[in-house]
Design a protein that fits this description.
- By secondary structure, the chain is mostly helical.
- The chain is built from 4 helices and no strands.
């Protein structure tokens, strides 16, 4: 679902970058079927739950600010 004021492609790219970071296993957030859909071009914005998206973005903010992030 698109978020007002944000380009869905930019959000998808950001989420993809976060999932691709070293030490992150996409299976922590996506089922095998969802990973297959993602690999076939499905948007992470559509595949991830709102809670998962918030968790990924919060972990990035915590790392950026030097806080303690659980990943």
């Amino acid at each position: 679902m698109p978020v007002g004021g944000y380009d869905p492609e930019d959000l998808d790219e950001k989420l993809s970058d976060l999932l691709d970071e070293t030490g992150r296993d996409p299976s922590n957030w996506l089922t095998a079927e969802e990973i297959a859909a993602w690999e076939n071009g499905e948007s992470l914005v559509d595949l991830l739950s709102e809670e998962d998206i918030r968790e990924l973005l919060q972990a990035e903010r915590d790392r950026s600010s030097g806080g303690d992030a659980a990943s």
